[in-house]
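Hi there, hope your week has been kind to you so far. No rush at all, and the record is pasted right below.
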Amino acid sequence: EHFVEKTLAEYIQEIETHHMTGGAHPWYVFKGNTIPLVSDADNSIVAIEDCPTPYVLQKAFEQTAGENMRNKKGVEGRKIFVNAQWALGGEGTGAPVHYHNSAWNALIYGAKLWVIYPPHNMIMSNKQMLDYYETDMTAFIERGVKPVTCVQTAGDVLLIPESWGHGVLNIQESVAMATEAKNPLFR
């Protein structure tokens, strides 16, 4: 479908009434905010004080970022990531299968089905996730390309390693935040 401009309030209203843009394959709101220029601006909804990186993940990612990026605090410590992201969607929405540098995703509300492919089966799709799940995923499985799946529920944090293909299907209304590492580990 084509681009449709709407307010966040209008999108939330669509979720609440179950009349979402996209019909049988509804749209997902996913917004990346460049660190630190956008992510920590005064009007940001993913500012470091509201959406901090979990301590253990911060320390793990620091080990891959290089000596000069270790033990930094606040916004300076956040610079090991590319962007701070937030996502919102109703049941049936989700992010298409894709891959990138290592990232973590915290689910604040709801439940998501993750479809994950190891690097030797990296898949990149531009198909809406429910549509992919109903069609292409079955075709891949029939050819022996089977994903690992898991359900993430509110409070869970999922770490996706670099180059692992993954897509997410919201199985409930969901709100999440995430960040992606700036530096690749293997590419």
Remarks:
- The mean pLDDT is 87.
